[in-house]
Specification:
With 577 residues, this protein is of the alpha/beta class. The chain has helices spanning 19-24, 31-42, 79-95, 105-112, 117-120, 139-144, 149-161, 181-193, 255-269, 281-292, 303-310, 333-340, 354-381, 385-405, 411-436, 445-455, 473-482, 487-507; strands at 10-14, 51-54, 99-103, 124-126, 132-136, 174-176, 198-205, 208-217, 220-225, 276-278, 299-302, 317-318, 321-325, 407-409, 516-517, 520-522, 532-534, 564-565. The radius of gyration is 28 Å and the shape is flat.
Length: 577
């Protein structure tokens, strides 16, 4: 049964008892309970101040909560689970707390009907009993993914802050959506005249600006539409129909009106005396520069980069190893909203509806503004503000210029390399067929596993994380080194994969106009501070940091970096920090 004072302001709900909980007859007394006690203590909460319980009061078979569902996908709760949820609701009503902490996806679902702990953790929402609720990760999950503990503690601190009252205070947003031309001009002129600090954000249709939003504080924002069905045969229809990137719906304004609006936006964005903030600013600034020639100045903060500067160690599970952090996951605006603001999740909007999109755009601006202020203080508290402003922000500007300018490519030489590589791929496949007597696709995991473990009868290799049978490059290299009798054929397979990767990642990537190779540099793309590089969001370019050096005269890639050429009248130099 539940444990704690019946007058508690805080109720903590877990999933179900484990072995030690079952033995002692109390919830959260095993290792998970110890972690919970530690986190509560670090947040200034004593365990004996809170009431702790579980969705189910009985331990599920094999500790598998899925046993309480009728189906494997856990869509249909069993009668046992339904009864447990009813009893939980009665239990919470009898205590009548100020706030409930739902630890894990099952308590979240049982209390609110919402699914997805990553989606809803950190948001203040109401339970079915009308009580204030905040969800976070379960302590058992924290024990497996320990780098998430700080997130859980931030959620608990937020829960503590809101435990003084039962109600969720209204936030009082004032959002100017679908404003008239007069309202737009008056508001933008007011911002510019008074040099108000602003956050800005765009939504796009293909490569075009769909709308541009500004917020001048954390509760006031305006969304200025540019692409809509205001005029033309579908006038008044707020449903956006995406025919193609190059054929968006019509302009929201008359031509002369749009000219005035863009000119006023340009006045604000290019005024270096108006402090500005944006989330992932390089994307917005690039689109604004390419479409309207607006070159943003006065950027004080990119909240994504500031968050990464403060908490580089936070992240979603690294690809291939869920126990290790990756820098790419915990700096989205959704996450920043859940950590730094009291605004509930709002990003589940209808992107095909203009009104829904305009509201979402305003909310993004307001939340970015509020996060801006919070992260400004956090940078100082953690004593990384000088590092951010002297190193991170200048690096962002430098890499933004680099990625948007791109580098020129000798398309003739690139094609020569491509033909040479494709010819070699055909030769390797012929050599493989001649040796094994049949066709083999080196890129087919199924065919490769059959060849390695059935035809050659090699020892089976399993992925260290997924524990599944694998025929990846590491497995092939291991077998080549440990089975010299098959070294020649395995070497050919590795050569094939290497050349094909070279073709797809370097020689066949889509170029930008003017035979230019572009990339996207991510200053916050790694845990250790190195730059990350990838193709642009438009599908052009590649990770330019992975173009092979081509130093081996015996390898087909020898000299391949000669395809990258300087503009006429310039030369390349090599420098290192």
């Amino acid at each position: 049964l539940g444990d704690g004072p019946r007058s508690a302001r805080i109720v903590i709900v877990g999933e179900a008892p484990g072995q030690q909980e079952e033995a002692q007859g109390k919830p959260f007394v095993g290792p998970s309970g110890q972690v919970l006690n530690q986190m509560l203590s670090s947040c200034g909460i004593a365990r004996n101040e809170v009431y702790v319980t579980n969705v189910s009061k009985t331990r599920p078979p094999n500790n598998d909560f899925g046993a309480f569902y009728e189906d494997k996908s856990k869509r249909v709760p069993s009668q046992v689970l339904k009864k447990a949820i009813e009893e939980l609701e009665l239990e919470i009503r009898s205590i009548d707390p100020h706030i409930v902490l739902a630890m894990g996806s099952e308590p979240l679902r049982a209390l609110t009907g919402r699914m997805g702990i990553d989606k809803w953790r950190g948001s203040l929402i109401l339970t079915g009993t009308g009580h204030k609720c905040l969800a976070t990760y379960h302590t058992a999950f924290i024990m497996r993914m320990y780098h998430y503990r700080i997130i859980c503690e931030l959620d608990i601190k937020k829960m503590k802050k809101h435990s003084s009252t039962r109600t969720i205070a209204p936030l009082g947003y004032e959002l100017l959506i679908d404003p008239t031309l007069d309202v737009v001009m008056q508001k933008l002129d007011y911002i510019h005249t008074h040099k108000l600090p602003v956050s800005f954000d765009i939504e796009t249709v293909g490569r075009h600006v769909r709308c541009l939003g500004f917020a001048w504080n954390s509760r006031r924002a305006i969304c200025i539409p540019f692409t809509s069905n205001k005029h033309g045969p579908r006038a008044g229809d707020t449903t956006l129909i995406l025919d193609a990137n190059e054929n968006p719906p019509g302009s929201h304004w008359r031509e002369e009106e749009e000219h005035l609006v863009v000119k006023e936006c340009k006045r604000i964005l290019e005024d270096k005396d108006i402090p500005k903030c944006a989330q992932n600013a390089v994307f917005d600034m690039t689109v604004l520069a390419e479409e309207w020639g607006i070159h943003t100045q006065g950027l004080d903060m990119d909240t994504m980069l500031a968050q990464h500067t403060c908490y580089a160690e936070l992240g979603k599970p690294a690809q291939g190893d869920p126990t290790k952090p990756s820098a790419s996951g915990k700096k989205s605006l959704d996450f920043l909203c859940s950590i730094w603001t009291d605004t509930p999740r709002y990003s589940d909007y209808d992107a095909y509806d203009d009104l829904s999109t305009w509201k979402y755009n305003c909310m993004d601006c307001c939340v970015t503004f509020e996060v801006w202020r919070k992260l400004h203080d956090e940078l100082k508290d953690l004593e990384v503000d000088e590092f951010y402003y002297n190193h991170v922000l200048p690096t962002m500007w430098a890499t933004a210029r680099m990625q948007n300018q791109g580098v020129h490519i000798d398309v003739k030489l690139r094609q020569e390399y491509t033909v040479r590589c494709e010819r070699r791929l055909e030769e390797i496949q012929s050599e493989i067929k001649e040796v094994i007597g049949t066709e083999l696709n080196p890129n087919s995991p199924k065919q490769m596993q059959e060849f390695l473990y059935d035809s050659l009868a090699l020892p089976k290799r399993y992925h260290p994380v997924t524990k599944r049978l694998t025929s990846n490059e590491e497995a092939i290299e291991w077998h080549r080194d440990h089975s010299p009798e098959h070294g020649a054929i395995l070497g050919r397979l590795l050569e094939f994969r290497g050349i094909q990767k070279l073709v797809s990642n370097t020689l066949r990537v889509e170029l930008s106009p003017g035979d230019t190779l572009r990339t996207t540099f991510n200053v916050a793309g790694t845990v250790n501070g190195r730059l990350a590089s990838s193709a642009t969001i438009w599908g052009e370019g590649t990770n330019v940091q992975n173009i092979p050096a081509g130093r081996d005269p015996e390898h087909i890639s020898y000299g391949i970096r000669r395809i990258v050429i300087p503009p006429r009248g310039y030369t390349f130099i090599k420098a290192d920090l």
